[in-house]
Amino acid sequence: MKVVTVAEMKDIERAAIEEYGIPGIVLMENAGVEVAGQIESILGNLHNKKISVFAGTGNNGGDGYVVARHLHNQGAKVKVFLIGSKTAVVGDALTNLQIITNMGIDILEVINQHDWDKVKIAMTFTDCLVDALLGTGFTGKLRDHMVQVVECMNKMNKVIIAVDVPTGVDGDTGQIQSVAVKANYTITFALPKQGLLLYPGALYVGELYVADIGVPRLLVQNIAIQQNLITSGDVTNMLGKRQPDAHKGSCGKVFVVAGSRGLTGAAALSASAAMRSGAGTVNLGIAESLHDIMEMKVTEVMTSPLAEVSPGALGEESFSELQRLSLHSDVVVIGPGLGRHEETMSLVRRVITTIERPLVIDADALYALIDHTSLLTEAKSVPILTPHPGEMARLVGLTAEEVNQDRIYITRQAAIEWGSIIILKGARTVVAFPDGEVYINSSGNAGMATGGAGDVLTGIIAGFVGQGLSSHEAALAGVYIHGLAGDIVARNGMIGMIASDIIKALPAAIFGIQEND
């Protein structure tokens, strides 16, 4: 499914009006009808239901006036609270305001403190609050009077339904500068906006409905829109079923270069995840002093000792053997728990520029790229990087907080500049490609906030590349399956989930996707 920025949605609406000849007031009418219909589905019979519609002076308020009219016609007792003056309402919104005025629907302009007292009383005795204050028209920080109404709405413990975007949520980034409406349901139009899917905004959306308001199909499927939501249907088309005559040699060979003293768990998790995602064979390259430990730790995974510069740390002398082993593999993982010895970091940079196999780069291998990201353009194939916000921050010279404030933009720009596939992990993982295309993951849960979960993701992606998926497909399928496996584990509770639980759930996650075919 395509996902839009606020500017792209405005362009779509403009094209619908100017190029297709659909009057703006028709789009507003369709939006209001859809919201009113959803409210009826949520509340049941609307007869005598008390509903307060909070409207701004712009087009989002216009949608609210249409909602009020249709709820009134269904027998609801509707009050409209216009936050501002009627004189500020223009265009299609004004037409709909005049209609509900003529219908005798109760409208109160909220301007002074006396008006606010009436609002608070009405909220107390209402069944449902409708947020039609700002929609996508909001950016920055709410003004004081809007803060007041939002805080009042949130305190009332009533069902809140947001029209298009909850007030206070940035439609592009999901950021909240002061406060935001905490909706139980959000009905957005034509396509989901980025900010509805990204945190913290996603916490304020409640259940999200995407309503068809009659925008021509070609506009909402425009290939120029480069944001997408990864869904199960997308992944089903990528993961084929295994052939009856398959053997381990035909199911992919993964080479994992990982681990150091105190960090062997990361190596084990990544290698085991590659096995559980379906790879035929996995070979773990590990510092020679750790080799015997790993032979006992990972039963199904082969292990290869590599030369070390100090106990547990790979050195430059390991490169020739590492290169030889890579030639017998379909994909190479480098980084999980690898350590940050200076010579190890030098080895990583050499691997990135010389190994002639697809690369999945994670953890300490990302640390080796600080101030060296230009080396990524020298890789023999498009590399896949899997940073968490802290790792991404170090690579781009920002803080983790700054990265999370605009996850899509920063990930996209990095992918373009580095000629790489970038997977920015976290709640709503973002996958970006060198052509600017971006995907937001829809699977996963908070229980996956546990050490080692990222190492598991790296292994899954490598396992899929080994089985013949393109790096593009493996990145998307890997992220979704990783989250889906976490969702399967979470059926028994999120608290206490560990990374190895996710690995164990991988076969069920993959099977579930394949059965959708």
Automatic annotation (TrEMBL):
<feature type="binding site">
    <location>
        <position position="266"/>
    </location>
    <ligand>
        <name>(6S)-NADPHX</name>
    </ligand>
</feature>
<keyword id="KW-0521">NADP</keyword>
<feature type="domain" description="YjeF C-terminal">
    <location>
        <begin position="231"/>
        <end position="513"/>
    </location>
</feature>
<dbReference type="InterPro" id="IPR004443">
    <property type="entry name" value="YjeF_N_dom"/>
</dbReference>
<comment type="similarity">
    <text>In the C-terminal section; belongs to the NnrD/CARKD family.</text>
</comment>
<comment type="similarity">
    <text>In the N-terminal section; belongs to the NnrE/AIBP family.</text>
</comment>
<feature type="binding site">
    <location>
        <position position="388"/>
    </location>
    <ligand>
        <name>(6S)-NADPHX</name>
    </ligand>
</feature>
<feature type="binding site">
    <location>
        <position position="131"/>
    </location>
    <ligand>
        <name>K(+)</name>
    </ligand>
</feature>
<keyword id="KW-0413">Isomerase</keyword>
<feature type="domain" description="YjeF N-terminal">
    <location>
        <begin position="9"/>
        <end position="221"/>
    </location>
</feature>
<keyword id="KW-0630">Potassium</keyword>
<feature type="binding site">
    <location>
        <position position="337"/>
    </location>
    <ligand>
        <name>(6S)-NADPHX</name>
    </ligand>
</feature>
<comment type="function">
    <text>Catalyzes the dehydration of the S-form of NAD(P)HX at the expense of ADP, which is converted to AMP. Together with NAD(P)HX epimerase, which catalyzes the epimerization of the S- and R-forms, the enzyme allows the repair of both epimers of NAD(P)HX, a damaged form of NAD(P)H that is a result of enzymatic or heat-dependent hydration.</text>
</comment>
<keyword id="KW-0547">Nucleotide-binding</keyword>
<keyword id="KW-0520">NAD</keyword>
<dbReference type="InterPro" id="IPR017953">
    <property type="entry name" value="Carbohydrate_kinase_pred_CS"/>
</dbReference>
<keyword id="KW-0511">Multifunctional enzyme</keyword>
<feature type="binding site">
    <location>
        <begin position="135"/>
        <end position="141"/>
    </location>
    <ligand>
        <name>(6S)-NADPHX</name>
    </ligand>
</feature>
<comment type="function">
    <text>Catalyzes the epimerization of the S- and R-forms of NAD(P)HX, a damaged form of NAD(P)H that is a result of enzymatic or heat-dependent hydration. This is a prerequisite for the S-specific NAD(P)H-hydrate dehydratase to allow the repair of both epimers of NAD(P)HX.</text>
</comment>
<dbReference type="InterPro" id="IPR000631">
    <property type="entry name" value="CARKD"/>
</dbReference>
<keyword id="KW-0456">Lyase</keyword>
<dbReference type="InterPro" id="IPR029056">
    <property type="entry name" value="Ribokinase-like"/>
</dbReference>
<dbReference type="InterPro" id="IPR030677">
    <property type="entry name" value="Nnr"/>
</dbReference>
<feature type="binding site">
    <location>
        <begin position="425"/>
        <end position="429"/>
    </location>
    <ligand>
        <name>AMP</name>
    </ligand>
</feature>
<feature type="binding site">
    <location>
        <position position="454"/>
    </location>
    <ligand>
        <name>AMP</name>
    </ligand>
</feature>
<comment type="subunit">
    <text>Homotetramer.</text>
</comment>
<feature type="binding site">
    <location>
        <position position="164"/>
    </location>
    <ligand>
        <name>(6S)-NADPHX</name>
    </ligand>
</feature>
<feature type="binding site">
    <location>
        <position position="167"/>
    </location>
    <ligand>
        <name>K(+)</name>
    </ligand>
</feature>
<dbReference type="InterPro" id="IPR036652">
    <property type="entry name" value="YjeF_N_dom_sf"/>
</dbReference>
<keyword id="KW-0479">Metal-binding</keyword>
<feature type="binding site">
    <location>
        <position position="455"/>
    </location>
    <ligand>
        <name>(6S)-NADPHX</name>
    </ligand>
</feature>
<dbReference type="Pfam" id="PF03853">
    <property type="entry name" value="YjeF_N"/>
</dbReference>
<feature type="binding site">
    <location>
        <position position="60"/>
    </location>
    <ligand>
        <name>K(+)</name>
    </ligand>
</feature>
<keyword id="KW-0067">ATP-binding</keyword>
<protein>
    <recommendedName>
        <fullName>Bifunctional NAD(P)H-hydrate repair enzyme</fullName>
        <ecNumber>4.2.1.136</ecNumber>
        <ecNumber>5.1.99.6</ecNumber>
    </recommendedName>
</protein>
<feature type="binding site">
    <location>
        <begin position="59"/>
        <end position="63"/>
    </location>
    <ligand>
        <name>(6S)-NADPHX</name>
    </ligand>
</feature>
<dbReference type="Pfam" id="PF01256">
    <property type="entry name" value="Carb_kinase"/>
</dbReference>
